[in-house]
Amino acid sequence: MNRQFVKVLSHVRPQHRSGVLCPKLFGVSRSPASPPTYPSAPASVRRFTTSSLLRSGSAASNPQMAFPCLDAVELRTKQIQSRSTLNGPEPSYTTGAHKSFTSKSPILLDYGGILQGFTIAYETWGELNADKSNVILLHTGLSASSHAKSNPDNPRPGWWEKFIGPGLALDTDRFFVICTNVLGGCYGSTGPSSIDPADGERYATRFPILTMEDMVSAQFRLLDELGVEKLYASVGASMGGMQSLAAGVLFPERVGSIVSISGCARSHPYSIAMRYTQRQVLMADPNWNRGFYYGQVPPHIGMKLARQIATITYRSGPEWEQRFGRQRADPSRPPALCPDFLIETYLDHAGEKFCLEYDANSLLYISKAMDLFDLGAVNREELRKLRQRNRYKLEPTHVQSTGVEEANQCSLSLPSQPYTEQPREDTPASKLSANQTDLVAGLAPMGDIPTLVLGVTSDILFPSWQQREVAETLKKTGNKKVTYVELGEDVSLFGHDSFLLDVQNIGGSVKRFLYG
Amino acid sequence: MNRQFVKVLSHVRPQHRSGVLCPKLFGVSRSPASPPTYPSAPASVRRFTTSSLLRSGSAASNPQMAFPCLDAVELRTKQIQSRSTLNGPEPSYTTGAHKSFTSKSPILLDYGGILQGFTIAYETWGELNADKSNVILLHTGLSASSHAKSNPDNPRPGWWEKFIGPGLALDTDRFFVICTNVLGGCYGSTGPSSIDPADGERYATRFPILTMEDMVSAQFRLLDELGVEKLYASVGASMGGMQSLAAGVLFPERVGSIVSISGCARSHPYSIAMRYTQRQVLMADPNWNRGFYYGQVPPHIGMKLARQIATITYRSGPEWEQRFGRQRADPSRPPALCPDFLIETYLDHAGEKFCLEYDANSLLYISKAMDLFDLGAVNREELRKLRQRNRYKLEPTHVQSTGVEEANQCSLSLPSQPYTEQPREDTPASKLSANQTDLVAGLAPMGDIPTLVLGVTSDILFPSWQQREVAETLKKTGNKKVTYVELGEDVSLFGHDSFLLDVQNIGGSVKRFLYG
User: Which of B493, B495, B488, B492 is CA-nearest to residue B504?
Assistant: First the structure.
């Protein structure tokens, strides 16, 4: 869930906007701290309001409401349409210069998908020492790129700018820090917007379902390439906090220590629900077109809506209470269904910033991968068996026939037999206990790895009980080197976003742990 | 936020659905407890998947994903379209037989809107006594009708079925209970789907912004009609908990006692944010058409999405953890972007149930009215001044000219001057203190009214600190008859929905208070 702009978003007040140009898409550079100014809507866009007025007639009891927020997104659609015709296809998602690693050998994914080859975008900071023992692998949040920190090739501030550098949490005087764009992402790594080498077309929703563990496996292929046998530490927050744990479970002998911040060992229903609604909202945008929007207008409206929902989960109610309260953006104007209260303009702004900055299909696949995350032993074993069954797909002889066979099989949305209920355990107490045992067994490979688990009490997306669960489970595996730190509400009201904002407490704890 | 079906939703498992008929719209009676069966998608709807496959070609590395949930809503659109052509316009929103009160005299709303006349649908239970002193006015949640309890004219169970009746929480052996459909609703009371008498067309988004206080004022016009001078009690939960307080502030001399369950004295930013995203998602549905969908396909997709988001706020994470955990609906099938985990099928089902059951514009206006709710003295005074300025609209001479003048004024979405920042107080401590003082002054009229305030610790939509705030504020007004009850997480994990489910603890507390 990293967001590079998160620090500059303060209390943005709305324009009575009619047209919104995405800064990235149109190459306009502007500081996010200063509210943008918007051009006037052309007559064609304003027409709706006019015709509604004509329709309602002069005799109506009350005036027709105005919807400038809808005018704005409709104008953007028109602008993108005209731009597509003139200048070619959809935006190129990038945060700037980065290194690339391309694997020519195929990768078999946990749920049976296959990529004939793949590319991982990455950046590094600090110096690799002679025995390559000072490497920190930094895992990102959902939508972040490899650009965690500015560097000469790309001086733009990174998403963990103040946490990486000489003397900082990830001390580049001592460590060689690697950050990748995850598999499935859109910032240089192979994802749904990449070309499928099998037919020369973009994957779109022909991209296979992937898991956190798949992403981590791809990262370790990069480490192989760099000749890094063992990490000094696997570090990450949010989705990265999941991955830092997954690295320890998948490659315990290659991970020296682990830092997991505001992450979890398995997603819980509330987080799944919040991500589910984001995906549904995005998929309902007609421009999403089942994922085949490349070269056309991308689902910027669905992306904006999804981001607004996501933004609710990043902070906390008490923080908003202090910051926005019940202030309206302009109390002199009548209440409106478009952004009106300051909290609404804040959400609107977050959606505007993001709607063309990130690939919609990447969001769907990575968000789903987070839901599927479960380091419990039962799930790990199921995935192992599934991989076993699918290993044949790595045989060169198989590769050509994959597409047809499975496509027909999977697109059958109407089974001939009605769905029947699966047996369900109805004893919560024993189930909970079984759940705990399952997770202890699942995390057993990490039994010897020193681990720092960091939680934030005000986090509603990855509630702190999940981090406590990780720490307690690790202790139950016999791990004697578990450190648990929780930032209470007196320390941080920034909720899930604390990992991006709290240099002193988050950064400080990480630094102490890595030096310990 | 009342939902009649809330009790029957257990752990519904999904069909691999392709077409979804709304039971209400199509007059199909089915028990919500048994999963529905869906007809096959016609070839025209399946075509997309087929053409995608053709596009992706047989050489693709992986199969195209299937999206049965999108097929289903697209099929519904087609079904409604064909039905519209054959059988006339949109569904008629009703929960059955009810009484009606129609005011011929106009009502001026808080924000300056005017209704030349209005109708309030209502139902009653029990017997009105001779001096009309045994009346309980029951306020509903956002989307509920007047049908709180079955009766001979409408034997269908009501939304508070087990709370109303002889010997129950609202004891009909003793009390005469009145429940109305709120002004702005769609179950018989005047709302956006009603005809504007000024021009014979539906109001749609020419309906004026309204407030909780407007709704309560309309209810008291009904009490006038019935000759009820003073209520024995004003009772409500959720939005009804706001209104039960508003009644005390607006008409302190006419309210004998107050019960406010899971309500608040002013909406806070987190609740506003959650409702805001619901409205935005709904308004983004192209079928919403700026509110002018009557006679056409209603925004059933936006309504479904909005309801899914809303449903997240009705329960609690811990309850879902116990009930759904990480169970997938059918573990034998590959992960999907359409409903997959049980929690997702639960949300999907809630959206399906609601999407054609309620008028989209009513949802928007009433949801917005909840955001605007603030019983603080500053807001009350501003509304008083605004009403003063708008009183001229009640003059018969004015009525004809209202429409044009204001329509032009309000639909200017592009001011000639850019928006400038309003001065903002940046001292949270003093602001918080001022906020408290403001609310004490606002609730002062209730200083003598015995009041029961009920909260539920696991509620995330109306968190219990808001109910504590109400109780503490009332005490500061000098009120000596304030009872505060909070159901802890050991008592209820049902969150906001507890008021619909917990007959013993919610119902029991209400009964004890009313008999006290």
Answer: B492
For residues A435 and A472, give the distance between their C-alpha atoms in angstroms, rounded to a whole number: 13
What would the two tokens of residue A335 be? 């209440």
Q: Considering A18, A238, A316, A498, which one is annotated as catalytic?
A: A238
Residues B289 and A349: beta-carbon distance below 8 Å: no
What is the token pair recorded at B170? 């609202």
Cα separation of B309 and B320, whole Å? 15
Q: Are A346 and A12 spatial neighbours (Cβ–Cβ below 8 Å)?
A: yes
Active-site residue among B340, B359, B459, B502? B459
Q: Who among A73, A116, A277 is closest to B309 (CB)?
A: A277
3-class secondary structure per residue, B34-84: CCCCCCCCCHHHHHHHHHHHHHHCCCCCCCCCCCHHHHHHHHHHHHHHHHH
Q: Any catalytic annotation for residue A238?
A: yes
Phi, psi of A417 (to 5 degrees): -100, 140
A291/B409 Cβ within 8 A: no
Torsion (CA) A137, A141, A145, A151 in degrees, nearest 10: -60
In single-letter form, the type of residue at position A50 comes to T
Q: Are the Cβ atoms of A276 and B207 closer than 8 angstroms?
A: no
CB contact under 8 A, A290 and B48: yes
End-to-end CA distance of chain B: 28
Contact in structure between A292 and A401 (CB atoms under 8 Å): no
Strand partners, B123: B179
Q: Please report, for chain B, how many H helices and E strands are present, in that order.
A: 16, 14
Contact B397, B112 (CB under 8 A): no
**Other beta carbons less than 10 A from residue A33's beta carbon:** 11
In a structure prediction context, what are the per-residue pLDDT tens digits for chain A, which is 516 residues long?
444 333 333 333 333 333 333 333 333 333 333 333 333 444 333 333 333 444 444 589 999 999 999 999 999 999 998 876 555 545 668 778 999 999 999 999 999 999 999 999 999 999 999 999 999 999 999 999 999 999 999 999 999 999 999 999 999 999 999 999 999 999 999 999 999 999 999 999 999 999 999 999 999 999 999 999 999 999 999 999 999 999 999 999 999 999 999 999 999 999 999 999 999 999 999 999 999 999 999 999 999 999 999 999 998 888 888 899 999 999 889 999 999 999 999 999 999 999 999 999 999 999 999 999 999 999 999 999 999 999 999 987 765 444 433 433 333 233 333 333 344 444 456 766 888 999 999 999 999 999 999 999 999 899 999 999 999 999 999 999 999 999 998 998 899 999 999 999 999 999 999 987
The model's pTM is 0.86
Residue A298 φ then ψ, to 5°:
-70, 165
Phi-psi region of B515 (alpha: psi -120 to 50; beta: other; left: phi over 0): alpha
* ipTM of this complex: 0.85
The two tokens of residue B154 are: 């409408």
Distances (CA, A) of B501 to B233, B323, B507, B508: 22, 16, 9, 12
What is the chain A residue with the closest CA to B70? A284
Report the residue count for chain A: 516
Q: Is A459 considered catalytic here?
A: yes
SS (H, E, C) A405-440: HHHHHHCCCCCCCCCCCCCCCCCHHHHHHHHHHHHH
Sign of CA dihedral B104, B105, B107, B108: positive
Alpha helices in B315-427, H assignment, sequence order? 317-323, 342-354, 360-372, 377-390, 402-410
Please state the separation of Cα B188 from the chain's center in Å: 15
**For A476-501, b where at least 16 C-beta lie within 10 A, e where not — what string?**
bbebeebebbbbeeeebbbbbbbbbb
Residue A175 Cα, gap to closest chain B Cα (Å): 38
